[in-house]
Structure formats: structure tokens, C-alpha cells
Amino acid sequence: MPDRTAADVADVNDALLQGLDRDSVLRLVARGVHRGLDAMACAVSTLERDGTLVVRAADGRVRPDLVGTRVPVANSPAGEALRRREPVVTDSGQAGVWSGSVLGPVLVVPIPGLERPGGVIEVADVASADSSESRRFGAGDVCTAGLFAAAAGMAVEHDRVNTDLELSAAVLGAPGGEPLPETLRRLSAAALTGTGGPAAAIYLLDDNLTLRRAAGTGPTELLEDGAAGAAPNVAQAAVASRAPIVHQHVHPEGGRSGTTSPGAAQSSDGPGHGTENGAGPGADRRTTALVCVPLMSRGVVLGVLCCLCPAGSYPGRRELAYLSMVAGKAAMTVDSSHLVASAQEKAAQEERQRLARELHDSVSQALYGIALGARTARESIGQAPDRIDQPLAYVLQLAEAALADMRALIFELRPQALAEEGLVAALGKQLAAFRVRHGVRTRAVLGNEPAGAFKVKQTLYRIAQEALQNAAKHAQAHNVLVRLDASPTALTLEVADDGVGFDPGASYPGHLGLRSMRERVGELGGTLEIHSAPGKGTRIVARAPTGLWP
User: Fold this and answer.
1) Which of 21, 127, 248, 355 has a 20 to 30 A CA-CA distance from 293?
2) In 76-208, at which residue ranges do the beta strands (DSSP E only) sit?
3) Is 295 helix (H, G, I), strand (E, B) or coil?
């Protein structure tokens, strides 16, 4: 084999090991065959379920629109090669993907597949300029193309298995928007769909590294007997080895049982040892094969998928590839669930800390002031009755402030409150708390509750919170205006103060409020305007589509 062809074959194999997609691998195949045979061009097509060929990759002198075209196989050299499952050489390129653009012969090599051929590799030659005859494809050319055809078959079958899994998920209901146990149950059912086995289950590792069943389909007690009763425990062995393991159990009258990895369990003839049903030596009606595939995500084992094969059969490469795909999807689902739970816990912790600060800065301080004012009022009753009005007024003022703060905090703690009471009520409560807490005069021009999607109203409410917080911390304002305007297609929120103002174009490291507001409204397709200057106050205007129109 020439060095260049050997290097091209190695590139294709590396692409398969790296898990590149089918078309990327087939492009490398087309390039390798074109260069290895020193031909005019090469096209690689896959055989679809409807019996037609679709060109997936091409290299050499080909028309630009060749890739993606659909080619019928009836009465064509490609169809003949697929039916005979052996290479075919034609005298000219009048038929097939070349559409009359090829003068010389065409070599058609079938791509192998498991249940049906994977497709064809077509190599085109041209007649030389000084002769009416072109070179003939020989046995060496067929052998070279065959090397690439085997790799192309692996890429096509991997893609088909992935497609089968997606179809099963579509039939069973796409995981993602449902509770984790239901998603895992659907995936365990998908394992049976692809293998025809009687039972499957998914086990997850708990904090003590013990496998506990999270979901299952079929008579899982039979499966658990095989998984836990075998010596060694097959499921734990798969977790420890981080690789699929097949345990073939022959019932007592059969006289033997054994645990092997898929590679060790296959003969040189391939999976199933060439039989139609995948049965290996001794795999008769008394034999049960148990497959355990670890659930791996980001290099960590999360659990294991266990599946019983049909009685008397042994899993072939297709079944093992399918179960690996199911296990991979289950691992991603479990890992995503863990990440979501972790993010939710982190968000809850941050929210608890924020509320603790709010309670300390507002309510607890108000309650301390109330206690102090009440004590002063009690002492004034006996010593200076004419001065009792001042401490009582102080107590009343602090009590009102504490109540307003508590209403605002309780509103924020109830996720459904904004949806139930509306944006206008939410802004009113926020302004009341702001007024009594900071002693700033407020004015609200809110009108009636506007029509708008909940996400839009929630975003505007958060922007108002942030703007009022900035006015309290930095603006030193005496007056604050909050205005809400609505049109059929958009909502506009305005928060203005008469404070010290600032330069909107300057950088303020550590102050993320304005950027947060821009990001929030930007996610809705809206805009944020900031009008301010030193000594001129600040006006923030947020506009967002209502979300009720496309």
C-alpha cells in the first residue's frame, strides 16, 4: 500500500475513533479513494430507507451541486453492485451520479452494512487526451477502495444506530421536560425496542457508591437476579471496568456460565459468529445473556444500564452499539439533572443570603427602632407626658416601614405573586417599601394592568427593583418617578430620580446593575436607555415587546 493511501486510511480511522459525524468521515473517504486510485473524481452515497441513494461526499472534478442529490438505484450500476454486494465496473459514466459528465469507466464499490448495505463508493475515470481508451480499474483498485468502504460502513452504521435511538425517543416521548424517573423509564423501554429483550433497567450510584434501581421495564426481577446473583456482580463489574460487559448464563442443565467483555466474547467471525440471530456457541434456549453498560458523563460513572437479551441469543455489534447510545443518553440526562439541582441549590442559597441581608438592613433595624421607641414612650408617660407624641410617632413610622418591607419581601418570596397580582400591584408595593425605608418622595404613573407575557413583566419588575436600589444607594435623590406605558406591541418602564447623576459612558468596576438590566431586556429583544449626567439626575427607560405577538 502506498504511503499516501496508508496515511489517508489512518486519517479515516482516527476520525472514527474521535467520533466525528458521518459526513465528515465520508468526506475523508472520498478524498482518500480519489487520491489512492489517481482517478478523476469520487462520490460516496448512502442507501436510504426508501431505497434511493443520497450523495453525502465527493472529491475531485465534480459539479458543485453533486452533494445532496438523490439518485435512484433501479437499472443502474450502483443498484447492481448493491444487489450483488460486490464491485461493478461500467464502461461509461452515463448513468448514476455523473449524469453523462464522465467519458471513461466507473468503479462502483458497495459499502457494507448490518441489516442493509450502507451505500456505494463510485470512482470515475476519463479517457486520456491522446487516446480513445482510458485505463481499466484493476484488482488493486478494488482492494484500495474496499479498505475505505469498510470504514465508511462503520460511519454509516453508527449514524443509523443514532437515528434509530432518536426515533425510539420520539415514539416514547422526548426526554427533557419530564421528571427524571419517567425519562429513565422511557430510555429503559427504548433499550428493549432496539434489542428485543424481555427486561431492562437503569441503576444509579448513590452517595455510598451503591447501585440502586431508578427505572425499569419488563420483569426486572429476572434481570436483577442475573445482575446481582452472578459472580462477580456484573453491574458492579461494568462500573469498575468503565466498559460494557456481557454475562452469558447457561441454566443448570446447560452446565456453564461466564462473564466476558464484548470483545472477548466474539469469535473471529464477528458478533453472533455469523448466525442470523446472534447466537454464539452454546447459546441455546437454556442460555440468557445479560448486557451491562456503564453510564458515563464527563469522565464520571453515574450508574449502569442492564438489559437481558432474548433467550438463546448473544448480543452482536448492532445491539451493543444501540445500548451504548441509550446509556449515553441516560448519562447525559442524569448529569443534566444533577447540574440543574446544583444550580437551583446555589440560586436558593444566594437568594437566602440576599433575603437575610434585606431583613437585617430593613425589618430587623425597624423592629429594633420600634422597641427603642416604645421603651422611650413608656418612660415618657411618667416623666414627661407632654413629650410622648414624639416617640409614639417614631414608633408608628418605623412600624409602617417594617410592614411595607415585609410586604415587598413576601411578594418576592411567592413566585406566583407577580402572575396573580400583576405588574402594577408589584411596582406599587415596591415603591411603598422604597418610600418608607429611604424617606424619598415617590410618584407612580402606572395605569391599569397591561397585557403582556409573564416573562416580560417579570423582567421589567426586576429592572425597576435594580433601578430603585441604585437610586437609594448612589443617587441621593429626593424624588423618584416610576412610569409604566403600554401599547399593543410593547411595554415601556421609566424610572427617574433627581439625584446626583453620573456619566453613563464611564466605567464602574464592580457595579453590575446597569449591565444586568441591559442583559435582561436584551434577552427579550428590547432596549435600555440611560439618560444621566453629573448633577442632572438619572432617567432609565426600558422597552420590551409584549411577547404576545410573533
Assistant:
1) 21
2) 88-90, 106-111, 119-124, 200-205
3) strand
In this predicted structure, what is the pLDDT of residue 385?
A: 67
- Asked whether the beta carbons of 548 and 452 are under 8 A apart, the reply is yes
* 3 state DSSP class of 376: helix
Give CA separation, 539 vs 226, 496, 500, in Å: 71, 4, 12
Whole-angstrom CA distances from 71 to 47, 74, 99, 368, 484 are 10, 9, 10, 84, 61
Q: Which residues touch 98 (CB under 8 Å, ≥6 apart)? A: 43, 106, 122, 124
Examine the pLDDT at 87 and tell me if it is beyond 70.
yes
**CA 250, CA 24: separation in Å to the nearest integer?**
43
What tens digit of pLDDT does each residue of 260-303 get?
555 443 333 333 333 334 444 444 556 778 899 999 887 889 99
Which residues lie below 8 Å from residue 87, measured CB to CB, with a gap of 6+?
Answer: 81, 107, 108, 109, 110, 142, 145, 146
Average pLDDT score, the chain: 77
Q: Are strands 441-445 and 479-486 parallel, antiparallel or unpaired?
A: parallel
- Helix 3-18 × helix 139-172 angle, to 10°: 10
CB 43 within 8 A of CB 77: no
Mapped onto helix, strand or coil, the DSSP state of residue 201 is strand
Peptide bond into 232 cis (omega under 30): yes
Give the cell for residue 223: 434481570
Amino acid type, 329: K
Spacing of C-alpha 188 from chain mean position? 19
The answer to pTM > 0.70 is no
What is the number of H-type helices and E-type strands within the chain? Answer: 13, 17
CA–CA dist 80, 88 (Å, integer): 7
C-alpha cell at 307: 438489559
Q: How far separated are the first and last CA of the chain, in Å rounded?
A: 60
Is residue 475 within 8 A of residue 539, CB to CB? The reply is no
Residues 477, 416 contacting (CB under 8 angstroms): no
Q: How far is CA 18 from CA 11, 12, 92, 510, in A?
A: 10, 10, 38, 43
Rounded Cα gap, residues 373 and 392, in angstroms: 7
Rounded distance between C-alpha atoms, residue 1 and residue 10, angstroms = 12
Give pLDDT, residue 159. 79
| CA pair distance 187, 161, nearest whole angstrom | 15
- Judge whether 414 and 356 are in contact, CB under 8 Å: no
CA distances (Å), origin 441, targets 50, 198, 375, 500, 541: 74, 73, 29, 16, 20
Cell numbers found for residue 133: 481508451
105 pLDDT exceeds 70?
A: yes
Phi, psi values for residue 472, rounded to 5°:
-75, -40
Cell of 192: 428493549
Q: Strands across the sheet with 53-60, in order?
A: 70-71, 53-60, 41-47, 119-124, 106-111, 88-90
- Reading phi first (left if > 0) and then psi (alpha if -120 to 50, else beta), residue 313 is in beta
CA angle centred on 176, ends 175 and 178, rounded to 5°: 85
CA distance 358 to 437: 11
**Residue 290 is which amino acid?**
L
Distance (Å, rounded) from C-alpha 30 to C-alpha 46? 13
